[in-house]
Amino acid sequence: MTAKKLTVVSAGLGQPSSTRLLADRLASATVAQLNAHGTDVEVDVIDLRDLAHDITNSLLTGFPSQKLDAAIAAVSTADGLIAVTPVFNAGYSGLFKSFADLFDPKMLRDLPVLVAATGGSERHSLVLDHGMRPLFTYLHAVVVPTGVYAASSDWGSGASSGQSALPDRISRAARELAALVAASDRSARPLDPFVLDPSFSPIGAFSAE
Asked: Which part of the chain is the NADPH-dependent FMN reductase-like domain (predicted)?
């Protein structure tokens, strides 16, 4: 059986990063769920902080670097996607949005996606439903019902209630994503988001429906 491909996008800016930590935990939980049902998984992790200059240059010139092209291809050819962003000013990060702006609007058609975010306060958790879910719905992806938000208190040693809730949310979201990934068929989606149209511009890089 061909291994499923799980792509993880982390928009964390720091090192170490709570955003990357959450992304890793979600990926591990999803892989464990798939392995438990006899499905092998290949995991590809994309740290957007390492692509920040490439993303900006691509938005300015319309042409991706080799590294950025590979990252977008990893998303477009995945069987499942985990997308995690820090929250700034009640919204997903500009780096995360800039990366998504490079996607063809139909590139993620029927792709199972788990959305997650990190922030300092629990009150920013609405970014999942008011920001990330509409973004991926517009991109024709299938967003799992459970989004995972981790506030600073979820990582603190004194926040026992938060610590008990976060693993539960991770586990539930991972089960939902794993079920969709197991049934996904990436052959039905476009594989090359940078096929050139007659204007010699990357298709969809700046388009809207």
From this structure: 5-155
